[in-house]
Structures are given as C-alpha cells and as structure tokens.
Amino acid sequence: MCEILVMIKTDNKPILKDQLERFLKRGLIAGAKNPHGWGVYSEKWSMKNINKFNDSDVKHVLKNYNNDSRFFALHVRFATCEIKKEFTHPFQNERFMLSHNGVIHVPNEKSGSDSLDLFNALHKAFKTDYARALEN
User: Fold this and answer.
1) Which is the most buried residue in 38, 46, 61, 65, by most CB within 10 A?
2) Are 128 and 117 in contact (CB under 8 A)?
3) Are 69 and 48 in contact (CB under 8 A)?
4) Tell me, what's the pLDDT at 17?
C-alpha cells in the first residue's frame, strides 16, 4: 500500500537541507516497497515522477530546495490503477493538496484513478461552497 511521510516545522523556521535529506532518505525505504511513482509537496513547489523513489530523486529534490518551506509531504505510490504521472500524488490546485492511502470509490467520477476522482470531487465541492460563502 502507498505510504505518506509528512514533515512539519512548528518553530516557524524553514526546514534545513540536512533535515530534508534525512526525511527524504526515510522515503527510500517506503519507495522500495512502493515502486509505482512518488510525489513531493512543499509550501512553494511540488514534483512528481512515475518511477520508484531512489537516491537520484533525493538529490534532485535537494537541488531544487531553497530552504523556503516549513512543510513537506512525500507520497510513494503502489498503483491500484494505471501508472501515469497524472495519477501520482499529491494532487493540488491553488487552494489545497491531497494525498491518501487505500482505494476509494467516488460516484459519478471516472478519470481512471480513484485518487484523482476524489481530488476532482473535493475540488468541485470546495469551489461550490467557496462561491456560496462569497455570496453571503
């Protein structure tokens, strides 16, 4: 099953590169068991890949990190549907990010990925609720 690792700094200071490196290296263990892709998400940026998370990915993430985030999530994927970048977590838009474990059934959504279906359903619901809140 997929694994999600989250790192949050609570002292309002950014995560240092050596702290991020230790965090990402823990993800290598999870990546060995979950070879169908990975995604990282921070406050400032995200990246995804459909390959197994490995040492070169750790180096690539660290190279792109500018000591500018207090939050990191790493999702390593064990596919329950097709292996595509668009089905790789995390899913995000301008307001929120989603990663999850397990299989989900979402009625009336048929993208080919239960995870993407969940994200799309939440996005639609959030847009509707947000628009209503603005009207009041």
Assistant:
1) 38
2) no
3) no
4) 95
